[in-house]
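Board notes (copied after class):
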Amino acid sequence: MKILVFGGTRFFGKRLVERLIESGHEVTIATRGKTQDPFQNQVKRVILDRRKRDDLFLLAASETYDVIYDDICYSPQDALYAAKAFQKSKPRLIFVSTLAVYPNKGRALVEADFDSAHYEIVTGDREDFDYGEGKKLAEAVYAQKAEFPVLSVRFPVVLGSEDYTKRIEFHLKRIEAGTEIGIQNEAAEIGFIHADEAARFLEWAGTASEATGPINAASNGQITLGDLMQLFSEKLGKEVKIETVTEDEDESPYDLEDSYFLSNDYAKSLGFQFDELSDWLPNLVEDVVRRKDY
C-alpha cells in the first residue's frame, strides 16, 4: 500500500512508520523537517506545514495514497483542510484522537459517549481551543465533512520509553526528592496503552480493518491512582507522599476526580488483541527507574 503519515518522527508515530516499513508498505512521511528521523532511504519525505491549506492541496495534487495517518491534527481547521484536499483521491484516513473527547463519567467509556457525527462544528485554529475540544471538533469535521472513509482512534494516555512528556519521570523525581504529589482521589481508575501497542493498533486500523467512525484503543485493565503511585514507590525503593491538596506544580499529571478510562470491547469484537496493562506497566516503570532520566 502507498501510505502517508503526517508526523511519524517521534514516539508511537515513529514506531508506526517502522512497522509499516517492516510490513513492506511504500511510506511517505510529511513533516516540517525539524525532527531528524532514523528511516534513511526507507521512506519518502515531504516537507510541509500541516496547518497550511496550500501545502496540503499541493501534496494531494502531486500524489495519491491508499491510507493516510493524521497524527498531528488538533483543530477543526486542520481537519477541514485535509477533508477538502483529499476528497478526490478518497484514501482511507486514520485520525489519531483521544480519551479527552469524552466527559468523565466515572465508568468505562464507550464510543457512543461522544457522538462526533452530530457534534456542532465550530470553526477555528489550534489556538482557539484546548486540546480536548480541538480534537472533538476535528473528529466532528472528519465525521461530517469527509467524503472518504475515516476511522477516529481514541487513545488514552500513551506510555513508553521514548515518552517526551516525561510524566512517569515527573512522579519519580518527586518521590526521590521526598516532595508531595497531589492526588485528589486515590481510588480513581485510569487506563493506558503502550506506544508499541498503539503503533500496532494503528497499523491494523489502516491496513487490516475496514471500520469507520470512532474506535477506542487501550490496554486491557486499569489501575487506581493510589496503586500507580505505589508502583512508582516500589520500583524506586522510596516512600511516596500523597496529598489531596498541593501547589499546582506538584499535582500529578494523571490526577482525576473520578475514574476515567476506555472500554476496548468494540475493537476486540473486530478481532484486535490488546496487551494486558499489568504485563507491561511494571516493566516500563522499572526501565525508567534504571535509566534515571529524570
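Comment from the instructor: The longest strand covers residues 92-98. The chain has a mean pLDDT of 96.
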